[in-house]
Amino acid sequence: MTETRRVAIVTGAARGIGAATARRLAADGLAVALLDLDEAGAKEVAASIVADGGSALGLAADISDAAQVSAAVARVASELGAPTVLVNNAGVTRDNLVFKMTEQDWDLVLTVHLRGAFLMTREVQKHMVEAKWGRIVNLSSTSALGNRGQANYAAAKAGMQGFTKTIAIELGRYNVTANSIAPGFIATEMTRATADRLGRDFDEYAAERAKAIPVGRPGQPEDIAHTVSFLVSEGAGFVSGQVIYVAGGPKA
Ligand code: NAP
Predict the structure, then answer these.
(1) Is residue 251 a part of any domain in this protein?
(2) Does residue 207 share a domain with residue 238?
(3) Pocket around ligand 1: residues whose beta carbon is below 6 Å from it?
(4) Which segments constitute the Ketoreductase domain (predicted)?
């Protein structure tokens, strides 16, 4: 164990899984930077972490824009310290059957998830390499295994797994681990939007989805935050290049 206060960056932290992860890492004793397109939301979650006695900074950044990524990471380094934990969580869905899917919807989903994780990782790994310590967690999904209406998202989330394994190989020599978490059905704005798109009441939709989940309930953002907490912990340094399905059972 070390006494160093680690600095974490969580993307897409204004709500949902990212917000729960930022809260959990702050409760674990890390200083946390919350990046999101939604600046007000990121600042609001950061303020609630500070009110609870944690250290947090909310920042606006589009993770698919290299200049914004570079500026945001520089600000985190100067205000909180060198970031050595990165959770690539920000994401979007633009679901449609492939014959109706537009090029814009394909490009946006691939860009936010894959280009976003790439740009963030490229920027933050400099600090990890210098510190000779780092933890990267990339959000994949059970949709990586295939999911009707999500050709773009499934491709992006399968891509996250290959990206994770490759950076685990490249950065391992610097004592940096990289792992993916592939959540199943988690109750957030993202799954609420899916229910809306299908014209379904969210609670009914979630109850129906829960019937196919072995533990018999939808996941909560805190379920994913707990797994992130483990993967970024000091003791998890020999776990790298893995994909952990956090789905209440063995498959989607
Ligand atoms: P969410 O509630 O929709 O939150 C995603 C956050 O990411 C939003 O605050 C969004 O901001 C932000 N974001 C989107 N594009 C961004 C960009 N270019 N730059 C910075 N921030 C951006 O989603 P969630 O359900 O918590 O999901 C979090 C992650 O887990 C995603 O990667 C998702 O694919 C993955 N996941 C979720 C589930 C699930 O069941 N919920 C299952 C498997 C995997 P705006 O609102 O301003 O767009």
Answers:
(1) no
(2) no
(3) 11-12, 14-18, 35-38, 61-64, 89-92, 112, 116, 139, 141, 183, 185-186, 188-191
(4) 6-174
230 CB-near residues (< 8 Å, 6+ apart) = 236
Q: How many of the other CB atoms lie within 10 Å of CB of 70?
A: 14
Assess whether 83 and 173 both reside in one domain.
yes
Question: Pairing between strand 55-60 and 31-36?
Answer: parallel
Q: Where are the beta strands (DSSP E) in 65-216?
A: 85-88, 134-139, 176-183
Structure confidence at residue 79 (pLDDT)? 98
Same domain, 67 and 129: yes
The pLDDT assigned to 153 comes to: 98
CA 152 to CA 211: how far, in whole Å? 26
Question: Mean pLDDT by 10-residue block, N- to C-terminus, for the chain (252 residues)?
Answer: 81 98 98 98 98 98 98 98 98 97 98 98 98 98 97 98 98 98 98 94 96 97 98 98 97 68
Residue 112 C-alpha to ligand 1 middle, in angstroms? 10
